[in-house]
Specification:
With 110 residues, this protein is an all-alpha fold. 98% of the residues lie in helices and 0% in strands.
Length: 110
Protein backbone atom coordinates (compact mmCIF):
# COMPACT_ATOMS: atom_id res chain seq x y z
CA UNK A 1 0.00 0.00 0.00
CA UNK A 2 2.88 2.33 0.72
CA UNK A 3 4.34 1.61 -2.72
CA UNK A 4 0.98 2.25 -4.36
CA UNK A 5 0.67 5.48 -2.41
CA UNK A 6 4.16 6.59 -3.51
CA UNK A 7 3.43 5.69 -7.13
CA UNK A 8 0.11 7.49 -6.95
CA UNK A 9 1.87 10.58 -5.53
CA UNK A 10 4.54 10.34 -8.25
CA UNK A 11 1.83 10.07 -10.93
CA UNK A 12 -0.02 13.03 -9.48
CA UNK A 13 3.21 15.06 -9.44
CA UNK A 14 3.86 14.06 -13.05
CA UNK A 15 0.31 15.04 -14.02
CA UNK A 16 0.66 18.39 -12.25
CA UNK A 17 3.98 19.07 -14.06
CA UNK A 18 2.40 18.22 -17.41
CA UNK A 19 -0.63 20.40 -16.63
CA UNK A 20 1.69 23.26 -15.68
CA UNK A 21 3.65 22.82 -18.92
CA UNK A 22 0.39 22.79 -20.90
CA UNK A 23 -0.80 25.94 -19.12
CA UNK A 24 2.51 27.66 -19.89
CA UNK A 25 2.24 26.60 -23.54
CA UNK A 26 -1.33 27.87 -23.68
CA UNK A 27 -0.28 31.22 -22.16
CA UNK A 28 2.60 31.46 -24.62
CA UNK A 29 0.29 30.67 -27.54
CA UNK A 30 -2.27 33.21 -26.27
CA UNK A 31 0.43 35.88 -26.07
CA UNK A 32 1.60 35.00 -29.59
CA UNK A 33 -2.00 35.14 -30.80
CA UNK A 34 -2.49 38.56 -29.21
CA UNK A 35 0.74 39.84 -30.82
CA UNK A 36 -0.39 38.45 -34.16
CA UNK A 37 -3.77 40.16 -33.76
CA UNK A 38 -2.07 43.49 -32.99
CA UNK A 39 0.20 43.07 -36.03
CA UNK A 40 -2.77 42.11 -38.19
CA UNK A 41 -4.66 45.22 -37.09
CA UNK A 42 -1.60 47.36 -37.90
CA UNK A 43 -1.33 45.72 -41.32
CA UNK A 44 -5.02 46.30 -41.99
CA UNK A 45 -4.66 49.95 -40.99
CA UNK A 46 -1.66 50.29 -43.31
CA UNK A 47 -3.60 48.72 -46.18
CA UNK A 48 -6.54 51.06 -45.58
CA UNK A 49 -4.14 54.01 -45.50
CA UNK A 50 -2.48 52.85 -48.73
CA UNK A 51 -5.86 52.41 -50.41
CA UNK A 52 -6.75 55.95 -49.39
CA UNK A 53 -3.44 57.26 -50.79
CA UNK A 54 -3.96 55.29 -54.00
CA UNK A 55 -7.42 56.81 -54.34
CA UNK A 56 -5.99 60.31 -53.81
CA UNK A 57 -3.28 59.66 -56.42
CA UNK A 58 -5.84 58.35 -58.91
CA UNK A 59 -7.90 61.48 -58.34
CA UNK A 60 -4.83 63.68 -58.88
CA UNK A 61 -3.93 61.78 -62.05
CA UNK A 62 -7.46 62.16 -63.37
CA UNK A 63 -7.46 65.87 -62.54
CA UNK A 64 -4.05 66.28 -64.16
CA UNK A 65 -5.22 64.47 -67.30
CA UNK A 66 -8.28 66.73 -67.55
CA UNK A 67 -6.09 69.80 -67.05
CA UNK A 68 -3.68 68.52 -69.70
CA UNK A 69 -6.58 68.01 -72.14
CA UNK A 70 -7.74 71.60 -71.47
CA UNK A 71 -4.19 72.87 -71.98
CA UNK A 72 -3.92 70.99 -75.29
CA UNK A 73 -7.24 72.43 -76.43
CA UNK A 74 -6.09 75.94 -75.46
CA UNK A 75 -2.81 75.44 -77.34
CA UNK A 76 -4.68 74.35 -80.48
CA UNK A 77 -7.02 77.34 -80.15
CA UNK A 78 -4.06 79.71 -79.76
CA UNK A 79 -2.29 78.15 -82.75
CA UNK A 80 -5.43 78.65 -84.85
CA UNK A 81 -5.65 82.29 -83.70
CA UNK A 82 -1.96 82.72 -84.58
CA UNK A 83 -2.66 81.41 -88.08
CA UNK A 84 -5.60 83.79 -88.40
CA UNK A 85 -3.43 86.70 -87.26
CA UNK A 86 -0.66 85.71 -89.68
CA UNK A 87 -3.21 85.69 -92.49
CA UNK A 88 -4.51 89.12 -91.41
CA UNK A 89 -0.95 90.49 -91.31
CA UNK A 90 -0.25 89.17 -94.81
CA UNK A 91 -3.53 90.60 -96.11
CA UNK A 92 -2.74 93.95 -94.43
CA UNK A 93 0.70 93.97 -96.03
CA UNK A 94 -0.84 93.35 -99.45
CA UNK A 95 -3.40 96.14 -98.87
CA UNK A 96 -0.63 98.44 -97.62
CA UNK A 97 1.44 97.72 -100.70
CA UNK A 98 -1.61 98.34 -102.91
CA UNK A 99 -2.40 101.63 -101.14
CA UNK A 100 1.22 102.64 -101.29
CA UNK A 101 1.45 101.94 -105.01
CA UNK A 102 -1.88 103.79 -105.54
CA UNK A 103 -0.49 106.77 -103.66
CA UNK A 104 2.69 106.68 -105.70
CA UNK A 105 0.64 106.50 -108.88
CA UNK A 106 -1.59 109.38 -107.76
CA UNK A 107 1.49 111.45 -106.97
CA UNK A 108 2.92 110.61 -110.37
CA UNK A 109 -0.37 111.54 -112.04
CA UNK A 110 -0.37 114.94 -110.35
Amino acid sequence: EEIISKERAALQDSIKEKEQLHEEEIKSLQMTLEENNVNLKKSIDEVVSMESKISELQSLISSSEKSSEKDNATIKKLEAEKEDLSTLVMESEVKYDLLNSTLVQLNDDQ
